[in-house]
## 1
Amino acid sequence: MKKIAVAGTGYVGLVAGVCFAEMGHQVTCVDIDQNKVELMRSGISPIYEADLQDLMVKNYQAGRLDYTTDYQVAYKDADAIFIGVGTPEQPDGSANLSYIATVARQIAESVEKDCLVVVKSTVPVGTNDKVDQFIQDFLVNDVRVEVASNPEFLAQGSAVHDTLYAERIIIGTESKWAEELLQDIYKPFNLPVVSVNRRSAEMIKYASNDFLALKISYMNDIANLCELVGADIQDVAKGMSFDERIGSKFLNAGIGFGGSCFPKDTKALDYLAKQNGYELKTVQATIDVNKAQKTMLYKKASRRLITFNGLKVAVLGLTFKPGTDDLREAASLENVPLLLEQGADIYAFDPVGADNFAKVHPEGQHGKGRITYVSNIEEALREANVCFIFTEWGEVKQLTPIMYKELMRTPLVYDGRNIYSVEEMEQAQVEYHSIGRKAVERQNMKESNGHELQSTRY
Ligand code: NAD
């Protein structure tokens, strides 16, 4: 059992801290946000992740887990201090390392015994070296402090599962002592460990994330071509998926990737390459395709409708993916302002992300447009003129095609997640536009008696 401190209680820090406690370590999670700390001490998770709150309560009650804003107390006698603070994107695309620097300084001023500082945050190659130097420069007591890299690969929405059953643990160290200490900490997890040097560990994280982002942008690029040449991206993906060299995951086309990682990590690696005089063309293409993809459906709908002004627009899903309340870089954040600007009367549904979205776009009038948050999908769809699907929540997937036909004033659906079968939407007489597949156009639809449908009601 080791005494562990974790700096930052976001998706990475909190989940890591809770899972270390679950494995028997003595953990103190540190955050600068007093409200968050109080919430966690009362047994409530500040983020939505399956199983997280239960494990928080269980380990807190067992005395293995605590939360504090008092970093000095948490860091002074820890065997290892994991850093899980944010490394957000800066305007030039580089990673903002100021939160990491603050924690490094706090550690240097607090530690009273030998300890290993472990950088879990995603940081550009070479950052661990700088953190190491920084700590040595500011170290107050005569103790041994080393720095190791241990990038995190969890996915939001399944963060606890991904941590307890990770496919691999990457540890990047520069000494046997650091390597053995980290191996020891991870021993109870019983997971494959890949041990490399610090710079390689830092690069593994970016190379992995950017490869996944590239896979998504590649499929979106192919999807756009599929539409033009009459192929179906889902059939194409299915055919590709049997090839083990390609793999079956991350082949779904859609309205682009979002979240707190892929967008910033692609930009940060591109920036790092440029700084080193290299042009990372594959990553640049990934970024460009994703940017265009996010508003693909809005552009399609704008061509189809004369105006959004005064139209009731149902927006299903606001978060960047299901299973999380995180909105960072979500497609909704790009599309909703465009719709509001055009005077749309938006009715938005999201099972967990609506409150966070309302902080950015409060309910009510916004210029010509208006946004209302509803907790019932049917309320969003009833008498709507058009519907956009931005997140494939289970609640949205459960809707049948016929419900769009029956509830909407005009059954016109733009599906950014390819939830429905084109044929079923056609049968239900829903005008349906998705990504990389045949569109079900109104003018081509026939009533069951073979007559063309009447024109759309507005
Ligand atoms: P987050 O923004 O959700 O959480 C960061 C937390 O750190 C906040 O609660 C903040 O209050 C706290 N903090 C800031 N300064 C602090 C300080 N001096 N001491 C203590 N706490 C402090 O961040 P996140 O999404 O958990 O991401 C953290 C890092 O992990 C980033 O580098 C990210 O790229 C990486 N990462 C994230 C994910 C993910 O899915 N979110 C996955 C893998 C890696």
## 2
Amino acid sequence: MQKTQQHLNGSVESVGHLINGEMNYSSDKTQDVFNPSSGVVTKQVLLADKQTVEGAITAAETAFPEWRDIPPVKRARVMFRFKELLEQHAEKICQLIGEEHGKISHDAMGELQRGIENVEFACYAPELLKGEHSKNVGPGIDCWSEFQPLGVVAGITPFNFPAMVPMWMYPLAIVCGNCFVLKPSERDPSSTLFIAELLHEAGLPNGVLNVVNGGKEAVDTLLHDERIEAVSFVGSTPIAEYIYSTATANGKRCQALGGAKNHAIVMPDADIDNAVSQLIGAAFGSCGERCMALSVAVAVGNETGDALINKMQDAMKSLRVGAYSDSNNDFGPLITKEHREKVIAYINSAEEQGASIVVDGRNIKVGGFEEGYFVGGTLIDNVTSDMISYKEEIFGPVLQVVRVNTMQEAMKLINDHEYGNGTCIFTRDGEAARFFTDKIKVGMVGVNIPLPVPIASQSFGGWKRSLFGDLYAYGPDGVLFYTHRKTITQRWPSAGVREGTNFSMPTMK
Ligand code: NAD
């Protein structure tokens, strides 16, 4: 197979599509791919047109009849080999993530490991495909449920986890017997494509996984093509809503995971030093570009608020912000110049609306990387729920502190917010923690755990406008999403059990 990194368009490398096991460079339209640490264009990604996407769907459709009939355990075996290849090539994958996303290698390694855990779970999927059996439901009658693949399914993924989020989707979908068309983010496509090549090296037959790079035209083709049975989406809420409404209007199954505004409540009895060190990592890690990033700290009581601000201010002095290539850095740049401007505009708006900028990352300069898209860790106090910066997702290294008097007020803030992805409480009080986990209207909840991202054997999803659809991503919900349940009731008539015609509803009476 032709390797991604070898195709040149003039002096710049092109990132193409992977269709039916072959690299494909057929599209006319391209988009620049930047190194966000330096602001330099490193590659050009091809943007698939309708015809190219249709070619990928045809490849998946053609591969499906054979793939669905391969025993699940053999399908899983490909994933065992894939896991090994991912581990062998971890450095190269993290390098590609760093170059195009800006993530520091320790963080990219964490992302990759989380992706690998989803591959490991997919190896276990045959166990979940066993179905359920009821013997002797009537005279000589057995009844069982089994899980059958849907056919061709699609995944559309965001820039912030180019390795992990696609691996939330296709390993499980493929072991369940489906064929897959993936449309990753056009902003950092190389690691996703390289990983897909590794899956082929692991023995995946051509056409079972196809990757098309592109933008709206590619997405819309997937949403409207009747051969696509289901769509998994992860990205921002406005696009998630569009994907969900369009896919379901076209008769497809859809799960669309959207944006977030994750609050951490800091109770007066919390171990404040622990809360501060956890908050710093969860607010600023990956430059705040995580859907589970903690972006709001709700301090209960003014004393808690003062202690939190003072200790955060101190701790933030040692934050190391810089290029992805220096593994001593804590976090790197934002994804694009435009996104940097947007994050700064949110900080400006908080200031204009009366909040206090305690630590200001707007004017940070990184020596040798003056054109990089950096924003330093920013701490804002006295934020209120009417401010734009509080209502909307910033997706940058900005922690806002809201001060309230009671835990009930803190919980009301969270429950009233339009997003419901993740949340956390810092406390030593078991009763308060139990009340919080029970009554909070959020999908993923931590107790002294700042990033409660479920492990691969659970499932991942938010509430309210953080998820459109009924089933969470990956884990047991993933198996349900990527399969049809079929229930079969069977009897082999013989002279002894043959019955006459019965016009009543059959019962066990
Ligand atoms: P995005 O919504 O801009 O893009 C996501 C995908 O949708 C990309 O593949 C993109 O090409 C495509 N897309 C963008 N605009 C489109 C349009 N108009 N029509 C059709 N397709 C379109 O998101 P992003 O900026 O790449 O990622 C960041 C967002 O993703 C944040 O809001 C973050 O919270 C969210 N996110 C959510 C989760 C979660 O699990 N809930 C996980 C990761 C990221």
## 3
Amino acid sequence: MTTNVILLGLPGAGKGTQAEKIVADYPMVHISTGDIFRANLKDQTALGEKARQYMDAGNLVPDEITNAMVADRLTQADVVANGFMLDGYPRNQDQAKFLDEFLSEQNQAVSAALYFEVADDVLVDRLLKRGRADDTKDVIEHRIEVNKEANMPVVDYYRQADVLHTINGDNDLDVIYGEVKQVLDQVN
Ligand code: AMP
């Protein structure tokens, strides 16, 4: 079996930065569903056209479209050979179930779900610093609440599956990455 990892965490939790470090050291293929959707929008593919209305409104693309896209990506040769690191998927429990069923058909499974947990006030500070000028503290706090509500069922799903590793995302980047490596070296 290859090593298959899920990255979980709210916007501002540092997932992107850790993903860059991980791919430099490990063979898993980094798959960001947001990036794939954006590339399809740009290239005006049939998939992009299906996803556009949802993305423009800031809503999730329906599971049927998203799951098919992920299944297609996971059957490509680079992922079959090296495993994956999924970023931005699953976003709800139905997607998590779909992924488990899909993987079990391939005699694969999720090796680890890394959950980058960051205190709300730290998230607010980070998002204020990197956000647009019209991102007020109130708007950012609201966005964190909304995302949290969506995120927690997926965190719970992997906790119940006994593959969840919670990592303190308040720490320095290198300290966080040290913890990430410990987990990945256990499951590799
Ligand atoms: P992101 O960059 O991860 O925030 O994704 C950008 C947009 O792509 C989201 O606002 C959704 O419209 C869509 N998207 C990305 N991942 C998913 C997913 N797992 N399920 C549904 N829609 C998604």
## 4
Amino acid sequence: MALTLARGARIVAATHNPGKAKELAALLEGRFQVVSAGELNLPEPDETETTFVGNAVLKARAAADRSGLIALADDSGMSVTALGGSPGIYSARWAGPGKDFAVAMDRVRERLEETGFEDLHAWFSCALAVAWPNGGPVVAVEGRVDGTLTFPPRGTRGFGYDPIFIPEGGTQTFGEMEPAAKDAISHRARAFAQLKAALFD
Ligand code: IMP
């Protein structure tokens, strides 16, 4: 039997961040009843995998098995070609304990300076994983958007590394773009489109 996520299903968003749970719920278009791992007091697993998909699967698996519900998890970040894919899965961690992305963006600039700014290509990735409880199946997808880095950072919209990233074919950074314009082409939107095609009834 094909795996599908039926409308109205109760699913757990494997995040302890209320903002992210809301964002995931919005992307799911009100199709499901979404509760967050934080609300269910589920423990937060360490992200010990080496890929976005690996970490999304780990988080979805843990939440599904603990809650007995179908779980959705995401993992995302920015990878820089000239830095061998860094910060990648460490994107959030580069901002330090204060979660200061001015610091993280400056770290990217400093590291690129060491390479002579020859290659400014970067990409955002978003992995989404859905896991069924009791050791059931897992489905994972990954979306990506490629672009070019620019310094200094520009724009006050968005979050994280948005102010230094210009998507392919554009002139504005994600930090300058209308949120709807970013949402139309983002790694997250692309991952969701794949998930919908694979699982929604
Ligand atoms: P996660 O919450 O562990 O998936 O960490 C994702 C991190 O990657 C965030 O803290 C951001 O720094 C970065 N990131 C992911 N998606 C975006 C985006 O759309 N714009 C800017 N930064 C992003």
